[in-house]
Amino acid sequence: MKITNSKISLRPTLSLFDATAINVGAIIGAGIFVVTGIVAGLAGSAMLVSLVLAAIVSMFTALSFAELSARLPQDGGAYEFAYHLVSPLSGFIAGWMWVISNTFVGAAVALGFSHYLAVMIPELPIRPIAIAITAALALLNIIGTKSSANFNNILVVVKILILFLFIVMGSLHIDYANLSPFNPFEPGVLFGAYFVFFAFSGFARITLMSGEVENARKNVPRSIILSLLISTIVYLGVGFVAIGLVGPAKLGASTSPLADASQAIGSSLISQLVTIGGLIATASVLLTTILGVSRMSFAMAQNRDLPKFLGKIHPKLDTPYPAIILSSVLMMILVFVSNLSQIVAVSTLSSLIYYGIGNFSALKLKIEERLYSQIIPLLGIISCALFALIVIFKSPEAWIIGIIILLAGLIFYKLGRK
Hints:
Strand content: under 5%
Distance between the termini: 31 Å
Order of helices and strands: EEHHHHHHHHHHHHHHH
Number of domains: 1
Largest sheet: 2 strands, antiparallel
CATH topology: Amino acid/polyamine transporter I
Mean pLDDT: 88
CATH class: Mainly Alpha
Radius of gyration: 20 Å
CATH architecture: Up-down Bundle
Number of strands: 2
Strand order of the largest sheet: 1-2
């Protein structure tokens, strides 16, 4: 722990590998085990086009966050970027929307973990298990950032190995007739890209804890690009094999598409491993979500945008334990009231607002501070706006809930300034 400019800083202990794994852990989560089915139902055999479009759109924003993190390697991500480069209010909006939506996401992911575990052990109670895994990962986070990162590294490596095995074994049983008809101009391709963007949305997770990364000015931008490239390769491989195994119709009608696709391989071991992969994936996403929400809360508390006690650090463990405890307790409570479909919609909208503000912040960088052309953040803003319009079309209630969250935040912000 160190104090700079009256702010408390967390000690940098994370390597480039740790930082990349945190991002990959946030991207390749339960989404890959579910979103592949949703996208296949929308885009058919052209699902791979949706994946490529989402990767390209994500890359625009990823490059913006990469150059911003090289300029401002501090905890808080787009909150800090906007706070310093645009205005304190815009920073607050980015941070507030992200914290609220991802607290709900944490509850949904905890429930997802319980459901995967219940497949293996049916008699287990869902909600108590969700609370238990949240508490366990929160405790791990309190014990130390490095210990959390080491555990996440193991989870990420194991789930990528499982998905790699699925790709290799599945490629031997592909029926290429399942890949046609191939129509990349179907309207569903664009809708599919929107859903994949949501699955990709963890590519900037490490920027929330940049202050804990060694040589952050270089390693944070590198980890953003590396994690997006790794995740894109995995998504394309998994998507191609899944469609080739069972076809888009069956994949789109399934609530557990990868599990159903793995059965076409004819190996019970592969099917069991895919189920275990889903369990591991949800655990790693929950871990990185707790990391992200607590670090964002910590950064906002440092600027007095959230209660001051959330900015405290444990004197021995060097972790923001009040922020970790509060965010985890809220996730545990929300386990009893969460609605998955609304959570996904509201979280997607909040992420688009967050990334839109981040791209706008990148536009404010001076010429000598830029790594890329201004066209990159501009394309990032346009793509975020386009996907936000799709949210209106697909889930108008998400806008209503999002506006309520935003208004509540603005009231909180105004009251906090009095």
